[in-house]
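Deliverable D4.2, example record:
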Amino acid sequence: MNKIKTIFLSLIFICFISTLVFGQHALNILREEVMIPMRDKVKLGAIVYRPEQPGKFPALVYRTPYGVDDYDSYAEFPLKAAKQGYVVFLVDVRGRLRSEGDLKPIEMKRKMATI
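Output generated by the structure prediction step:
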């Protein structure tokens, strides 16, 4: 019984390490940290979840001034959406945390530039 428990815990550890090294989630989802270039050369920091298989997928964009790292650590929505065949972009708005540039919350035209 102890040997089975050791093997089971070893498999869980290997899955966890492979997720960290390769960015692949246990649900056949890929997680990537990317910088999205804008027309004015500013780059927005983002975390992208997508299905593992190649192809075209509909996309969901979640922009936040509060930090994608905090949201990424507890949210199940990106995982569920990616498992259902969506690409999910968690994006820090311009001038906040991972993103470059200056924060100008009133400018609507830049919101459309992300898409």
